[in-house]
Amino acid sequence: MQKKQWYWVAGTLAVTIVIYFLAPTQAKQKAPANVAAAPTTPPAVNIVPTDTVILGAIKELKSTEQATARYLWEQTQNATGTNAIGLYKQAATFWGDTVHNHILGAYYLGKAAQLENSEKNLTFAARLLLDEVMQGAEPALQSWMANEAKGFFEKLVAQNPNNDSAVIAIGACYMFGNIAANPMEGILKVLSIAEKDPNNMYAQLMLGLGGLRSGQLDKAIERFLKVTEKQPSNIEATLLLADAYDRKGDKKNAVSWYRKASNLIQIPEAKKDIEERIKTLQQ
Predict the structure, then answer these.
(1) Cβ neighbours for 43, distance < 8 A, ≥ 6 positions apart
(2) 182, burial (CB in 10 Å: exposed 0-12, middle 13-18, buried 19+)
(3) What pLDDT score was predicted for residue 185?
(4) Distance from CA of residue 190 to its chain's centroid?
(5) How far is CA 111 from each of CA 29, 68, 125, 260, rounded to the nearest angstrom?
(6) Confidence at residue 173, expressed as pLDDT on a 0 to 100 scale
(7) Phi-psi region for residue 206, left (φ > 0), alpha (ψ -120 to 50) or beta?
(8) Considering only CA atoms, which of 248, 26, 233, 272 is closest in space to residue 135?
(9) What is the dihedral of CA 46, 144, 161, 121, to 10 degrees?
(10) Distance of CA 262 to the CA centre of its chain
């Protein structure tokens, strides 16, 4: 079994950060053709329009569902106040529950939450979109999701400037969503929280991911070690640390950390796949 294939384990465990780096690159949800054609360079100024995403998704629906989707799209265009909140919620239910497009379901839930000033729903919608970004998608769709998630997180920070998790998430949107010409813009946001609070393990994990993505394996390992020291049962950090050692060619440490990850995982199929990777490294 190839390394990238067995990492579906992380998905089974809902370890979405691990999925972003280690799962196959095929998008979870197919982007509409007209989205794929949208320009993406420079990413900071060429985010695909929301209407393009929605109309493209409508074309992918069954004919019996397209009328409802188009009606909701048209009605939300100029809606305001409580009327807009109700329509956004209807759209969220339709897209998320009826046709199982969780990306647009989250988008509309976030739009309603912004008007309601609902921190709970806004956080849920923003994190769902960021999770989708981390899992990977067609580039134009991924940038759109990151941009929308960033807007939701920025609203949360506006409501509560001390919301460090939201600041870190904004940094992650920049780092992994290709919405800024300079990825350091995202890293600096995360770094600001890590420097303010070295015990913020979410920030340490994100910085480790940044190092892993950029090939700075020693820096990534340093960050992941901090997380595993404070949180020995953190499966994400443990798997990522094992992978960082693996990429570095340090088979001894890679095997050690894969074994620790296997001990944390309760799913038999997942443990089997990890053991296969360990055997490969020991050959």
Answers:
(1) 143, 178, 179, 180, 181
(2) exposed
(3) 83
(4) 15
(5) 21, 19, 9, 41
(6) 94
(7) alpha
(8) 26
(9) 160
(10) 24
CA within 13 Å, CB half, 85 = 10
Torsion of CA 32, 3, 130, 44, to 10 degrees: -70
pLDDT of 268 reads 87
The DSSP symbol for 43 reads T
pLDDT at res. 271: 87
d(CA 283, CA 268): 23
Coil vs helix vs strand at 189: helix
Q: Which of 209, 215, 169 is nearest to 20 (CA)?
A: 209
CB atoms within 10 A of CB 67: 11
- Report pLDDT digits (tens) over 36-63: 333 333 344 478 899 999 999 999 999 9
Give burial (CB, 10 Å; 0-12/13-18/19+) of 160: exposed
Interatomic CA distance for residues 74 and 69, integer angstroms: 9
pLDDT band of 118, cuts 50, 70, 90: very high
Model confidence pLDDT, tens digit, residues 251-273: 999 999 999 999 998 888 888 88
Q: Which two tokens stand for residue 86?
A: 């109700």
pLDDT greater at residue 34 or residue 115: 115
DSSP string for residues in 100-127:
--HHHHHHHHHHHHHHHT-HHHHHHHHH
Burial-class residue 210 by CB neighbours within 10 Å (0-12, 13-18, 19+).
buried
